[in-house]
Design goal:
about 575 residues; alpha/beta; Rossmann fold; GMP Synthetase, Chain A, domain 3; 2 domains; nine-stranded mixed β-sheet; globular; binds 5'-O-[(S)-butoxy(hydroxy)phosphoryl]adenosine
C-alpha cells in the first residue's frame, strides 16, 4: 500500500542526526552545523561562499570568515535588543549578506524569514505585518522601492540593516536605519551560540494558498538533519564539491539547498547575483568547475531553447549530478540533459511545508524520465483516494489509499525532521493538513507498480509560474482595489517556458465608459505590477461581463480555467497534467 525507498533498509533519522556534531553542551543549531564546526576544523580556509557579483567580480568567503561574520551579526542583534524567538526578515537579492544574516540570526536563536526581492510593496508589507517583523535586512534601493511606500503600515519594524556601498549615506534617512557593514566591523568576531533545542523555531517561510492570506510555515533547527541527509542521498554532495543552487534564497529552495544543505557538507556554494542568461550560465558551470547543480525546469527549458550547440561549446566535464525541483520536469528535458549536458536531469519533489526533498530520482540510482522519483529513505509516501468531489476519502480516521496507477492526493507519513511545525498563528489550518498521522500535500499524483511517483497536478487553484508559487487571491485582491474593477478571477494558463502564466479575468464597475474600458487591461497590468512586483502580477488581463460562481458566491477559478483551456467542465478536479 505504501512505498519506502529501495535504498533505505539500514536508514534511520537517529543515525543521520549522529552524522552532525550537535552543540558542545547538547542541543542542535543549524549555524553550528553549517559554519562553526567547519571553521573549527580543517575546512577553515576553504571557500564557503563564492559570490559572482553582477559586475563580473568574484568574491570568496572562507568558512573561517563566515563564522566571524555570522558571530558579529548575532552580537549586533543582541545589542539591538532582538530577543531569541523574534523574527529577522531579509529582502535581498543573491548576495552573501543574505547568508550572513540567516546564519547570524540562527546564532542569536532568532527566527529568519527571507522575502523574495522581486516582490512588490504589497506582498512585502503583508508578510512583514503577519510576521510582526522587528528587523529587516535590505538594500537602500529595495527599501526605497518596496518598503518606504508601506512603512507606515509596519509599526513593529524597529531596525533596518542596510547593505551596500550607499548604505551609510541612506541610513540616516531611514527610520531605524543603520549601515550593516559598519555595525559588523565594530563588533568582535566571537559569539557563543546559546543553548538551542532541536525543536526551536529557526525559519519562517511564507507560501501561498488558494484563499486568504499567505501561510507562514515554521521550521525548526532539527530540519538540518534532513537537509544534510538529503544533500547526500539525493544530491550526492561530497567534500570538495562546488555546488550551485540557482534558486533565489528568497524562497525555500534557495534557503534549504542554497544555504543550509551545502554548508552543512562543507562544500563551496556559488551565489550568482545576475539573472538567467544561457551563455553566462554555461560559462559559470564551466569556469567554476561546478560539480553538483540544482536548478529548475524553467531554466532547463530555457537552455533547451538556446540550443544544444551552445552547450557543446562549454566544458561541462566537472559536472557529476544535475537535479531540478519546483514544477513538473518533462521527460523530454530529462533526456535532453543526458544527450547535451552529459547527465540526465534528476527530478526531485518537495514543498515549503516539507522543508526538504521527499521524493526524487536519487543520486546513483536509475532515472525515470517524467517521474518525480521515489521516496527518500526515511520518508513514507502514499496516494490517498479521492471521492467524486475531489475530497480525500477517510475511513476510521485514516485515509483510504489508492491502488497503484490510480490518481489521488500525495500523502506523507508525518514525522521527518524538516517537517514544518506550524503555520504562524494558524493552528487550525495546520491541524487540517494532517489525517490519521499522514500529512496532506495537496498535490495530485499516482504511483506506478514499481513504486515511482508521477505528478498529475495540484489539488487547488494555486499557480506555479517559473517555479514560483502564487496565490490567486493575492492577485485578485490587488486588482479589486482598482476603482474600475468589481470582481477578479485569476488562474494559471499553460506557458511553454514558465509552465504556467498568470491570467486575470475582471468584471468592470458599472458606469466605466467605453473609452476607459478600452485602455483598462493595459492600465491594470501596470497597476498590478507596481503593487505586486513582476513575478506575482498577471501577464494577461481579459475583461468579462461576468465570472462563473460557486453556490456560495465565490469565483470558480476551475471553471474559468476549464473554459479557457477548452477542457470538459465535468471533471474539475484534475485539470492539469504534467507531461
Ligand atoms: C509545489 C511546492 C519544491 C520546493 C520549492 C517550491 C510543485 C515541486 C515538483 C516536481 C511537479 C512540483 C508542487 C508542490 N512541485 N516539485 N518535481 N514536479 N511539481 O516549494 O513553493 O512550496 O511549491 O511545487 O505542486 O506542492 P513551494
Amino acid at each position: 500500500m505504501t512505498t519506502q525507498a529501495a535504498t533505505g533498509s539500514d536508514f534511520s533519522w537517529t543515525a543521520e542526526r549522529a552524522r552532525l556534531d550537535g552543540l558542545p553542551g547538547g542541543g542542535l543549531n543549524i549555524a553550528h552545523e553549517a559554519v562553526d564546526r567547519h571553521a573549527a576544523g580543517p575546512l577553515r580556509d576553504r571557500a564557503a561562499l563564492r559570490w559572482l557579483a553582477r559586475d563580473g567580480s568574484v568574491h570568496d568567503t572562507t568558512y573561517g570568515e563566515l563564522a566571524a561574520q555570522t558571530s558579529r551579526f548575532a552580537r549586533l542583534l543582541a545589542d539591538l535588543g532582538v530577543e531569541p524567538g523574534e523574527t529577522v526578515f531579509a529582502l535581498l537579492g543573491r548576495v552573501p549578506e543574505l547568508h550572513v544574516a540567516a546564519l547570524g540570526t540562527f546564532k542569536r536563536r532568532a527566527v529568519f524569514c527571507p522575502l523574495y526581492s522581486a516582490f512588490g510593496p504589497e506582498p512585502v508589507a503583508q508578510r512583514l505585518t503577519l510576521g510582526a517583523g522587528a528587523v529587516l535586512v535590505t538594500t537602500p534601493r529595495l527599501y526605497a522601492r518596496r518598503v518606504a511606500p508601506v512603512r507606515d503600515r509596519l509599526p513593529a519594524l524597529r531596525h533596518v540593516l542596510l547593505v551596500g556601498a550607499d548604505a551609510a549615506d541612506v541610513a540616516p534617512e531611514v527610520p531605524g536605519g543603520v549601515d550593516l557593514a559598519v555595525e559588523l566591523a565594530a563588533r568582535p568576531p566571537a559569539w557563543e551560540i546559546p543553548p538551542t533545542s532541536a525543536d526551536d523555531v529557526a525559519l519562517l517561510h511564507f507560501t501561498s494558498g488558494t484563499t486568504g492570506r499567505p501561510k507562514g510555515a515554521l521550521h525548526v533547527h532539527e530540519a538540518v538533519v534532513a537537509h544534510h541527509a538529503t544533500g547526500r542521498i539525493a544530491l550526492d554532495l561530497r567534500e570538495g564539491d562546488v555546488f550551485w543552487c540557482t534558486a533565489d534564497p528568497g524562497w525555500v529552495t534557495g534557503m534549504s539547498y542554497g544555504v543550509i544543505t551545502p554548508l552543512s557538507h562543507g562544500v563551496t556554494c556559488l551565489i550568482d547575483e545576475g539573472e538567467f542568461d544561457a551563455t553566462r550560465w554555461y560559462e559559470t558551470l564551466a569556469e567554476q568547475r561546478v560539480t553538483v547543480w540544482y536548478t529548475a525546469p524553467t531554466a532547463i527549458r530555457m537552455l533547451m531553447r538556446a540550443g544544444a550547440e551552445l552547450a557543446r561549446e562549454h566544458d561541462l566535464s566537472a559536472l557529476r549530478l544535475i537535479a531540478s525541483v519546483g514544477e513538473p520536469l518533462n521527460a523530454e528535458a530529462v533526456r535532453w540533459g543526458a544527450e547535451h549536458l552529459g547527465l540526465p536531469i534528476r527530478d526531485t519533489w518537495w514543498q515549503t511545508e516539507t522543508g526538504g526533498i521527499m521524493i526524487g530520482n536519487l543520486a546513483g540510482l536509475e532515472v525515470r524520465p517524467g517521474a518525480m522519483g521515489r521516496p527518500l529513505p526515511g520518508v513514507e509516501a502514499s496516494i490517498g483516494r479521492r471521492d467524486e468531489e475531489g475530497e480525500l476519502r477517510v475511513a476510521d480516521g485514516v485515509p483510504v489509499m489508492a491502488d497503484d496507477g490510480e490518481g489521488g492526493e500525495l500523502l506523507l507519513r508525518a514525522g521527518w525532521p524538516s517537517m514544518f511545525r506550524g503555520y504562524l498563528n494558524e493552528d487550525e489550518r495546520y491541524a487540517r493538513c494532517f489525517v490519521g498521522g499522514w500529512y496532506r500535500t495537496g498535490d495530485l499524483a499516482r504511483r506506478d507498480e514499481d513504486g515511482w511517483y508521477w505528478f498529475l497536478g495540484r489539488g487547488d487553484d494555486v499557480i506555479k509560474s517559473a517555479g514560483h508559487l502564487i496565490g490567486p487571491f493575492e492577485v485578485e485582491r490587488v486588482l479589486m482595489e482598482h476603482p474600475a474593477v468589481v470582481e477578479a478571477g485569476v488562474i494559471g494558463v499553460p506557458d511553454e517556458m514558465a509552465g504556467q502564466r498568470i491570467k486575470a479575468f475582471v468584471v468592470l464597475a458599472p458606469g466605466v465608459n467605453a473609452e476607459t474600458a478600452a485602455g483598462l487591461p493595459r492600465a491594470l497590468l501596470g497597476f498590478a505590477r507596481t503593487r505586486l512586483g513582476a513575478v506575482v502580477a498577471p501577464k494577461e488581463i481579459e475583461v468579462r461581463d461576468e465570472l462563473p460562481h460557486t453556490r456560495s458566491g465565490k469565483v470558480m477559478r476551475r471553471l474559468l480555467r476549464a473554459r479557457e483551456l477548452g477542457l470538459p467542465e465535468g471533471d474539475l478536479s484534475t485539470l492539469e497534467t504534467a507531461t
